[in-house]
Each structure stands twice: as C-alpha cells, then as structure tokens.
C-alpha cells in the first residue's frame, strides 16, 4: 500500500514532544515555550508539540490553540511541526486538527480517544474517519499515536491497514510508543513507505535499517543534536558511536519520572528553576533526585549547548 508522505519525511528526522513551561501561577509560559522551540529547531529537531511529554492532556483546548499560534508568530516553519491533536472529545480533535492543518503543519499526531476501553477497530476507524472528513483538507496528514500503556486503546495493524486503504494520502505514519520492538519491527515490515517512528532513539540502530522514519522521542528535548547526528551518520562506525551516546543518556533519564526529569535537566542548563514546574497530578523531582540525575549525566559528559536563548528569557 502506498502513502503520500510530506517532504519533511524525505529523510529520517527527530521530533521532540516539547516540554511545556509554566508560570508561578501554573499558566502556560508562552515566551519560554517559544524560546525552547527555537532552540530545538536550531539543534536539528522538529517539533512534536503537545505530545505526552508536553503534558498535553493537562492543557486546555484554548491553551494548545494559542501556543501553536505563538510558535507560528515567532516565525518557526510549520513544516517542522507535528502537533498532537488527538482528544477524547471528537469536536476537540476536529478543532485541533483543523487548526494544525490550516497552519500548514507537516502533520497531526493523533492519539485515539482514550477514556473508553475495549472499543472496537470499527469505533476507532469511525473516530479517525470523522476527523478526516470534518477537516476536509487535501493538506491533512495524520500520524497515528500508539501508546497503549497510557491510553489502554491500542492501534492494531488491522486498523492501520484499513485506514491506509481508505485514506492513503492522509494517514501516512505512526509513532509507536508501545516499547514493544516486535510490534515496531512488524509495522516496518508490513507497511513499507508508512512513516514509522519509534519513541526511543535507543531503538534506531535496529529500526533505521528496516526503514524507520526517525524517532519522536521524549529525550529529544535534551539531546536533539546528538540524535540528529545519529540520523545523519554516513558510516556504520559513526552511526554506532552516536547510538551508544544517545542510548546511554536515554537510559539514565528514563529510569526517572520522565516529565519531571526532563524539566529538571532543562532548568539546570537554562539556569532557570521555573522550568521545573509541572501541573498536578505530576510533581517535580526533589533536589536529591535531580542532583543525582545531573551527576549521572555529568559523568557521561552530557551538555545542552547554546542555551543562551532560554537564559535570556529567564532574565
């Protein structure tokens, strides 16, 4: 089955589910968010705005709409963006997806509706179909988001096959956050030309030779340049070197609560403690946890270069 991929997927890419900063009153901090997006793009990453690690499901519809507008107004190319637009309520998913499409984003990364469990593939097909039909744009490109350990609603291979058959120019890829390598490998084999993104850079050594489109990874927030270097490696030796570097950092961070850990790292390198804020029910890392993680990263010679733009916003 052939699909119609955006040009941004012409070669493997890394996309970061951009962590979201908050003010002391826990409002979204748009200036810090935009500055961080600019830093990520400058480091070679695309922007998977409003992903799991963006605390997207702790953001209102209006906040997600406004944040995308702020990023666009800052002059960041929408072709570098894959906003998360999935929602439990169909009208919310339609509104978010329409907004992203009209803005010219490369695609919309769509969770399934995740409150009701045990729903059928027929129901999920209807959900995605209703969004596609309501948006009604030839420019819409949908990437499915498979993260059953959070949603309880898996994206089956049968559903993918059905969606591609009916919407070959619209449903063009998937982020596989299942952590199940066998599932990722099977999708890469079964759906050639479909943009399959593993959720961890640690899997790229196995996934790239099978045709992976890159990765959409939590830790792309902190090591975008290293992951981009891995994806752009020319020789096998160079690729192996970068694989080892990015995987080691990934393993260190994923051993902690991911979102608070990422924010603690950004706060440290941006010299801006406001980045540690999270919305309930999440809680920030305590100083001992954060200090131990930063010591571990320091031992790996980890750094986040060129963070001056974020420090300037803090000032």
From TrEMBL:
Its EC number is 4.3.3.7. The active site is at residues 145, 175. Transmembrane segments: none annotated. Pyruvate binds at residue 216. It is an enzyme of class 4 (lyase). One of its GO terms (molecular function) is 4-hydroxy-tetrahydrodipicolinate synthase activity. InterPro entries: Aldolase_TIM, DapA-like. The keyword NAD does not apply. It holds the Pfam family DHDPS. Keywords: Lyase. PANTHER family: BLR3884 PROTEIN (PTHR12128:SF67), DIHYDRODIPICOLINATE SYNTHASE (PTHR12128). Belongs to the DapA family. This is 4-hydroxy-tetrahydrodipicolinate synthase. The gene is dapA_6.
């Amino acid at each position: 089955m052939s699909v119609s991929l955006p040009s941004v997927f012409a070669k493997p890419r890394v996309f970061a589910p951009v962590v979201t900063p908050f003010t002391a009153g826990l409002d979204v901090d748009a200036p810090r968010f935009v500055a961080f997006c600019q830093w990520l793009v400058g480091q070679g990453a695309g922007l998977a705005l409003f992903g799991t690690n963006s605390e997207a499901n702790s953001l209102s519809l209006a906040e997600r709409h406004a944040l995308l507008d702020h990023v666009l107004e800052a002059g960041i190319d929408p072709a570098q963006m894959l906003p998360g637009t999935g929602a439990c309520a169909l009208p919310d998913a339609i509104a978010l997806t329409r907004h992203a499409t009209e803005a010219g984003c490369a695609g919309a990364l769509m969770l399934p509706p995740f409150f009701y469990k045990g729903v059928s593939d027929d129901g999920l097909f209807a959900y995605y179909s209703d969004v596609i039909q309501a948006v009604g744009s030839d420019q819409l490109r949908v990437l499915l988001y498979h993260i059953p350990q959070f949603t309880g609603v898996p994206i089956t291979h049968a559903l993918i096959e059905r969606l591609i058959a009916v919407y070959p120019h619209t449903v063009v890829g998937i982020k596989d956050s299942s952590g199940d390598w066998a599932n990722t490998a099977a999708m890469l084999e079964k759906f050639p030309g479909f943009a399959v993104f593993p959720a961890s850079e640690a899997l790229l050594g196995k996934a790239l030779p099978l045709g992976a489109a890159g990765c959409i990874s939590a830790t792309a927030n902190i090591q975008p340049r290293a992951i981009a270097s891995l994806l752009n490696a020319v020789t096998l030796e160079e690729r192996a070197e970068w694989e080892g570097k990015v995987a080691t950092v990934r393993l260190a961070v994923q051993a902690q609560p991911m979102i608070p850990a990422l924010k603690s790292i950004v706060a440290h390198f941006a010299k801006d403690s406001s980045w540690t804020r999270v919305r309930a029910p999440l809680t920030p890392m305590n100083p001992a946890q954060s200090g131990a993680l930063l010591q571990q990263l320091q031992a790996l010679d980890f750094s986040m270069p060129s963070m001056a733009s974020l420090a300037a916003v803090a000032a």
